[in-house]
Design brief:
There is one protein chain. Helix 5 links the parallel strand 4 and strand 5. The strands form two sheets. Strands 3-5-4 form a three-stranded parallel β-sheet, with helices on one face. By secondary structure, it is an alpha/beta fold.
């Protein structure tokens, strides 16, 4: 079977795997509309949601975004994603907002006022779940 992803996972503190798995599955279905994870997505989501590290290599369209978006929704606080692709940031934040997820992005395309507004909103609204 051809592998679409190479993953390196390092063990770290985890929440109960069963509760993490069912919560992740619920978010996958309820928020993103998918019935099942693809390939190694579930193992990666569980690793990250449990506080572990993951280095994941996947092709374009391979489902990388869900591997960090779902753990960010499972864990308390703000999820921060660092990406070199400004267009991808905006596209992903727009898509998350359409799904009802509170999301924002910071990058060099924003004005100083817009940057301050995003930063100020994040400080006042800790329930915001994604910052790309």
């Amino acid at each position: 079977m051809q592998r679409w992803m190479l993953s390196f996972l390092r063990t770290a503190h985890r929440t109960t795997q069963t509760s993490t798995t069912s919560a992740a599955q619920k978010i996958l279905n309820d928020v993103f509309g998918y019935a099942t994870f693809r390939g190694e997505q579930q193992a990666i989501v569980e690793q990250i949601a449990g506080g572990g590290d993951a280095l994941v290599l996947m092709p374009t369209g391979g489902g990388k975004s869900l591997c960090y978006q779902i753990p960010a929704l499972l864990r308390p606080g703000v999820g921060i994603v660092v990406s070199p692709l400004i267009a991808l940031m905006q596209d992903q934040v727009d898509a998350l907002r359409q799904l009802g997820v509170k999301a924002a992005y910071l990058n060099s395309s924003l004005t100083t006022d817009a940057t301050r507004a995003v930063q100020g909103h994040q400080l006042r609204r800790p329930e915001q779940r994604r910052l790309s």
